[in-house]
Amino acid sequence: MQYHIQTDPIWEAFKSGCDCPLCEIYSRCEARLTDQYLNEAVMEPEYRVEVNKYGFCSDHLKKLFAGKNKLGLSLQLQTRIATVRSDISPVSSYKQALKQAATLDKTIDTCVICNSLNEMTERYACTIAQMFACEEEFRTVFQKSNGFCMPHYVLLLRQSKKAGSMTVHYLNELASLQNRTSERVSNDLDRFAQMFDYRNAGSAVRPDPETVPAAIRKLKGRIL
Questions:
Q1: H-type helices in the chain, by residue range?
Q2: In degrees to the nearest 10, what's the CA dihedral of 95, 99, 100, 103?
Q3: What whole-number distance in Å separates Cα of residue 171 and Cα of residue 189?
Q4: What are 27-39's pLDDT values in tens digits?
Q5: Would you state the torsion angle of the CA atoms of residues 47, 51, 56, 62, taken in this order, to the nearest 10 degrees?
Q6: d(CA 74, CA 58)
Q7: Against a cut of 0.85, is the pTM above it?
Q8: Which of 107, 116, 130, 142 is 20 to 30 A from 192, alpha carbon to alpha carbon?
C-alpha cells in the first residue's frame, strides 16, 4: 500500500505511543474541523447547508464558542435557528404536540462536525485493516502499540473484513493486543488501589495520578 493522505496520519498516530491511535487521529481531525467551521466554512454555501440542517452538538458548540470567531459562529447559529423555527408551529391537540416534539427531537442534538468525524474515523478503521493486510512493517508497529479504547476497538472489529484474506489473522492479533493492553491497565489499577492499603502507609511510592484517567480512556476514549 502506497503512502498517501489516508495512511500518513495512521503511521503518525501508531508511532506516537498514545493509548489509542484512533483517538489520536480523531482529536487531530476534530481540531481541524472546529477551526474550519469557525473560518473558511462560515461563508461556503455547501457547508452552511449542512450546518443549517444538522447544527452542532453541545460538546462541539462549546468548543466553537471557545474559539475566537464569535461573528462566524453567530451567523451559523442564526441560520440554524431559522431552520429549527420552521418546524415550530401552533398546536391544537396533544397528538400534534407529540408529533412536533418528535420532529424537533430528531435534530435537537445532531452535529455536522460529529457526522464528519464519524465518517472519517470509519474510513481510518478500514484503512488500518488494509494496512495490516498489506504492510509487514505496519503489522510490527500495530503489535507493539498500546491497543485502543473500547469504542474504537469495537469499530475495528466491525471493519475487520477490509483485511481481506488476512482477516482472521488480523482479528486474532487485534483481540490479543486489546487483551494484553487491557490487562496492563487492570494491573495498574490494582497497584493504585494497593497504595491506599494501611500496610503501605508511609511508603515512599505514591499512587500514580495517571492510573485512573488511563483506565477511563481505555474504557471510554478521550472524554476527560
A1: 8-15, 21-36, 45-54, 58-65, 70-85, 94-105, 112-134, 136-143, 150-158, 167-194, 211-220
A2: 170
A3: 27
A4: 999 999 999 999 9
A5: 60
A6: 15
A7: yes
A8: 142
Question: What would the grid cell of residue 154 be?
Answer: 469495537
Query: CA 68, CA 57: separation in Å to the nearest integer?
Result: 19
Which residues neighbour 75 within 8 Å (Cβ) at sequence distance 6 or greater? 42
Longest dimension (CA), the chain: 71
Q: Would you state the cell numbers that stand for residue 153, as one nine-digit string?
A: 476497538
- Between CA 93 and CA 179 the distance in angstroms is 55
- Asked if residue 202 has pLDDT above 70, the reply is no
| The total number of residues written for the chain in this structure | 224
Residue holding cell 478500514?
126
